[in-house]
Amino acid sequence: MASGDETPVAQQVLPPATDQPVAKLCAKPIVTTADGNALPLACRNGALNVTAWKFYATISASVLGLGLNPTQGQVVSAMCDDMAHNGATRAQEPNGYRLARAYYGWTFAMDPTEVTCQ
């Protein structure tokens, strides 16, 4: 059932992912912020916002495409790759991580804003 500007979305693989999401999906309009981010990442019911995923799909492609069972080191490497090669900024990449974490159900205890790249 739709709630205001939120619409449920059928479960599907969202590129660059190759696995089905663990999270429920929804669509909600995004707003871009002064630091280049797009919000909200989720709908009120906690479902992942497909509109935000599509915004981050290019700049955070490495972390969004990691899959269900990466190591924490692989996640950090993917985040650094996004910042080095895909155009993600330090302000944007933590949200790419947050989307991937919700999509795949990762349980890492890490702060994406503290990632350091070589």
Description:
The chain has 118 residues and is of the alpha+beta class. The chain has one domain (7-114). 32% of the residues lie in helices and 10% in strands. It is built from four helices and five strands. The chain has helices spanning 50-56, 61-64, 72-86, 93-104, and strands at 7-9, 25-27, 31-32, 38-39, 48-49. The strands form two sheets. Strands 1-2-5 form a three-stranded mixed beta sheet. A two-stranded antiparallel sheet has the order 3-4. Strand 3 (31-32) and strand 4 (38-39) form a beta hairpin. The radius of gyration is 13 Å and the shape is globular.
| Percent of residues in β-strands | 5-15%
Number of helices: 4
Please identify the structural class as seen in this structure.
alpha+beta
Can you count the beta strands? 5
Q: Could you state the order of secondary-structure elements as H and E?
A: EEEEEHHHH
Could you list the spans in which at least 5 consecutive residues all have pLDDT below 50?
none
Radius of gyration of CA atoms, rounded to a whole number: 13 Å
Which percent bin holds the helix content? 25-40%
Overall pLDDT: 96
CA(first)-CA(last) distance? 46 Å
How many structural domains can be distinguished in the coordinates?
1
